[in-house]
Amino acid sequence: MDLAGKVAVVTGGASGIGQALAQQLAEQDVRVVVGDLDEAGAHQTAADIRAAGGHAIALRSDAADTDDIEALLRLAGDEFAPVDIYVANAGVIGAPALGSEADWDVTLDVNLRAHIRAARLLVPHWRSIGGGYFVSVASAAGLLTQLGAAGYAVSKHAAVGFAEWLAITYGEDGIGVSCVCPLGVETPLLQNIRGIDDADARLGASAIEHSAAVISAEDVATATIEAMRNDRFLVLPHPELLEMYRHKGADYDRWIAGMRRYQRTLRNG
């Protein structure tokens, strides 16, 4: 994919992976609309991009709200041009353990339904013009699991499944899809998990930090943009994740037993 001159929306762009993606896309001459509930952070990301010579604007938005998604798309069209690239990056860790009904609603809304709602708005136009690109920022949890947080594990599995479906269903219409699945990344989300005073949350943070090296958001953005250029679906910023995924598929029962041992080890310190 030739990125130069394209228009992108990046949700959750005030910090972390979203911020890094917005900045690196702008460096590739992409015009960027930054969305985030953190209004000041979103505008700061856009201001930093403009200060570096790029083109960016920002809007406070809830990535899971259809009206707010429409507002992001409308702003892009008014200020730049219709959206070519949509980066569904906004995510939440959700409640520890099994959570409540309300917890599940929030986690599924942000980590899954936000992607579905954006696709509903974008795909008809992209099909009509024969092009468009959807980036789903999921997680290694979508290929493996997330200890300590059922909602996060399940919603990220679902996000991967939805991205696969998009790629299969609309790939021949010229719509590209990349699904980003990192292990530990040094972001506010990980920092928030570390700060939760809950045994399951501590387990989750430990599992993330011990699974592989914790990399930077910039590393994830670089891997994602390289995948977009090559129209590659699965983005694995941690190369070792591929072997972990292969082990899971090769012997599911052995993998579950191993994860139980890993959980026990982490709980026992």
UniProtKB/TrEMBL annotation:
One of its GO terms (molecular function) is oxidoreductase activity. GO terms for biological process: steroid metabolic process. Keywords: Lipid metabolism, NAD, Oxidoreductase, Steroid metabolism. The keyword Transmembrane does not apply. CDD domains: SDR_c (cd05233). InterPro entries: NAD(P)-bd_dom_sf, Sc_DH/Rdtase_CS, SDR_fam. Belongs to the short-chain dehydrogenases/reductases (SDR) family. This is Dehydrogenase. The lineage of its organism: Bacteria, Bacillati, Actinomycetota, Actinomycetes, Mycobacteriales.
